[in-house]
Each structure stands twice: as structure tokens, then as C-alpha cells.
Task: structure prediction
Amino acid sequence: MQLLNASGCLDALTAPETILMLDAFVTKTVTPEPRAGNAPVRIAETELGMLNAIGLANPGRERFVAEVLPRLRELGRPLWVSVGGFTARDYAETCEQLGRDGVAAIELNLSCPNVDEAPESAAEIVAACRAVSANPLYAKLSPHAWDIGESVRAVEAAGADGISLVNTLRGVALDPSLRPTVARTTGGYSGPALKPVALAAVHAARRVTELPIVGMGGVQTGRDALELIACGATHVALGTVLFADPDAPERVRGELVQELARAGFPSVGDAFCAALGTVVNLDN
Result:
């Protein structure tokens, strides 16, 4: 089991000490052209989490490859590059430009709730990237899909090497005057209340695939990480918790060991898929 960060929840260059607590670092999403992001207000706290409507602010792939990627390589952790776009061609061209040098994996951001989505399906985008990239490709999917298993099957057939679940849910928060707190009205909701959604998505995905799954959504403690593993997550990513607790990776890792012992499992591998019972049916 590897411990990662969720894309966009940690700036490696301003918090290198936190990066060293992780097994791999996932970058902010890179798009073909530079993006300033959405107009403020772009972040709002909620009772059990936060809304963000950043809008994929980033320097664009040319500057990322030329300036940011070399600096990230110096941090000494495997790099997963999050790639976004507005057409399948956008995604594919960025994946091709990244190459393999210093890139451990590419996470395709197929479900950002704060920008317009590509007209192609997730599977079509994965297929376009697979055609030009030899890097491991992880498809980051939305929890909005009613049948997440169908989406997982589709991206696997298109060439995905792994799955990331879940991206944020679309939400709205109101201020005291009953106006939306973020300028775009809606934002991506993350935080503790997202965990049951993440557990359900990982559980459903594991029933239809043997691919590695990065489970994320509402992870605050070692117990949360253990529950994702029990539902079939191969790896676990920390998101919103990193804003308040930069030492969370070390803490969660220690708590996971304690929770394994408390639940009677000798190792992480013994707890893997425990919530699915004795049979993991990969034929349905």
C-alpha cells in the first residue's frame, strides 16, 4: 500500500517536508494552456469539509515540463502527473509531451466539477492517451456515475492501468444572506462526509476489476485508510486533511498499524477486500 496526496491538495515546492512522508507525490492538474482559474471566491469551508472551485489553475504544460517538473524531480519522490484538458487530443498531447523521464504515472483527471468537461467519454480519452504514452495511466473517475462499475470496465478496456476514486462531488454552500459562498455557485465538495461515497465507489470498482485502485475521499485517520483498503483500495490518497494537518501522512500511517492490530489483521494485505466477503466476483 502506497500513501499519496490527492491532486491539488498539496504544493510540493512549498511543503517539501510533507512530501517526504508520502510514497509518491501527485501534481496539480496540468492543462495544455496556462489557466488563471475561476474568479474568487474559490474556496469555502463547510460544516464537514470544504468546497473548492479553483478551476485547474496551472502554468500550462510547456512551463510545467520546462520549469516545474525538473524541480519536482529533485524532491526524491516518485511523481504522478495529473493531466487535464477539454478534448481527448488535449489529454493525449500532454501525455505524449511528458514522456517517461521522471514520471512514475499519469493520473487522467476525467471528472473535475469546476470546469467544462471534454465532449469525449472517459474511455475515449484513455484510449487516445494510451496510443501515445507508455506511462502507467490512472483514470480518475467521478462518483456521480450511478454505475461506477460500468465506467471502470470501460476505461480498463480502453487501456487504463489503474483507477483513482473518487473525485470531489459537486456542491453548493450558502452564506448568512443565503447567497452562494463561491463565485461560481458550485464547487467540488471534499472532506469527512465524502468517505461513505468513496467506500461505495471503491467497493463497486473492486468487484469488476483487478487493476490497482487509489482510494480517496474523506480520509482523516488510519481507520479511514483501513476501510478503503477493506473495500478494495490498493493505495490511499490524502486530500482535505492536508490543509489543516501537514503531518497527516505520518500520523495516518502510524494509526493504520494500530487499526490493523485492533481489527485482528496481521498486515495490510490481510485486510485487503475484507469488506467484500470471501468472494470477489470479477465476472459480473
